[in-house]
Amino acid sequence: MRRFNITVNGVSYDVEVEEVNSSAAPAAAPAVKAAPAAPKAAPKAAAPKAAAPVAGGEQVKAPMPGNVLDVRVSVGQKVKKGDILLILEAMKMENEINAPKDGTVAQVAVTKGATVDSGAVLVVLN
Questions:
Q1: Average pLDDT rounded to a whole number, residues 81-91
Q2: Which of 3, 12, 100, 106 has the most neighbouring CB atoms within 10 Å?
Q3: Which residues contact residue 31 at a Cβ distance below 8 angstroms, ignoring those fewer than 6 apart?
Q4: Is the pTM of this model over 0.70?
């Protein structure tokens, strides 16, 4: 008998295997135990998408695709150049998206948890 560890769908099993010669039949066939069913992964919920931007104002766009971790501004809020508008996670790094100019937030086109593509409008400033 030889022992092996086998991993199926992330579940590890310890198994014994008997080598059988083709010329000699085994005295008794060992009972086969059914392996426990691997737990099924729950389907992932789709991440919310960004909203359509309003016309007018300066659009602050995503420099790269990623996930919105935090939105730090709200509509009507006054911001100064360099203020953090939101945090965008891309390739496991948190990137601060800053205001390019002084202004007032006219629209926040994304929500926390949204997935955005490169060039997607994040915030509109007036």
A1: 94
A2: 106
A3: none
A4: no
